[in-house]
Amino acid sequence: MAQLVSEWRSEGVTSPEQNLIVANQNEDVRELNRAAQLERFLGGELSETFIVIAGQTCRCRDRVLFTKNSRLFGVDNGALGTISNLEGTRLTVALDTGGSTSFALADYDHLRLGYAVTTHKAQGMTAENVFVLAGDAMQDREISYVQASRARGLTRLYLNREAAGEELQDAVRQMSVSHQKMLAQELLEEPERFRSTDGALAR
Q1: Sheet with 80-87, edge to edge strand ranges
Q2: pLDDT tens for residues 44-83?
Q3: In the chain, how many domains are there?
Q4: For the chain, is the Cβ count within 10 Å smaller at the N or the C terminus?
Q5: Angle CA(55)–CA(9)–CA(121) in degrees, nearest 5?
Q6: CA 184 to chain centre
């Protein structure tokens, strides 16, 4: 995690919207968000004024993630944006999809920092560079595909030695295991696709 934040800093401090951080666990995402925010604050990119949203300190120019749909304010669950103005308990967010939205916290407070997102939330997102904290118990082929396909440019994967194994063999094995669910109809129509090497049907 420390290495990820250190390498993200070089471009992420000034262009966080093009340098997305992805992790599997909510706890890791919260810690990565705090670390990325601190780097931007120390780099002079964030305002001194702040607002507290769901226990998180958010400042002008912070990246935020919307976590609930709102037709009234024109946002979807999973949308990203940048806080462009803070006035008391009212804030304006410039949306990555274009345009902006403005609201008071009393009317909408389903926001969290958006420098780092979970792999689940990252589905459908695209950034120039993606920094992935990988290798935990959730890692599998489907999750790895989502993580590896979010960047137009460079994807970096970060694992500890225990998760990586000798010459990355443990990481490769874990990222090759599929947990994709099959439909009963698929099994009936193409049973040979789901047979293991000993001829038994895969569970």
Answers
A1: 100-104, 90-95, 80-87, 63-66, 111-113
A2: 999 999 999 989 999 999 999 999 999 999 999 999 999 9
A3: 1
A4: C
A5: 50
A6: 32
Closest CA to 114 of 32, 52, 192, 49: 32
Instruction: Please say whether the beta carbons of 20 and 30 come within 8 A.
Output: no
Residue 155 one-letter amino acid:
T
Q: How far apart are CA 25 and CA 118, in angstroms?
A: 7
In the block, tokens 């992420």 appear at 12
The neighbour count for residue 147, using CB atoms within 10 Å, is 23
Residues 6+ away with beta carbon under 8 Å from 77: 66, 67, 68, 69
Phi, psi torsion values for 194, nearest 5 degrees: -110, 15
Helix (H, G, I), strand (E, B) or coil at 26: helix
Amino acid at 175: M
Tokens (6 digits) for 55: 């226990």
Residue 200 DSSP symbol: P
Give the residue-averaged pLDDT of 81-103.
96
- Domain that includes residue 1, residue range: 1-203
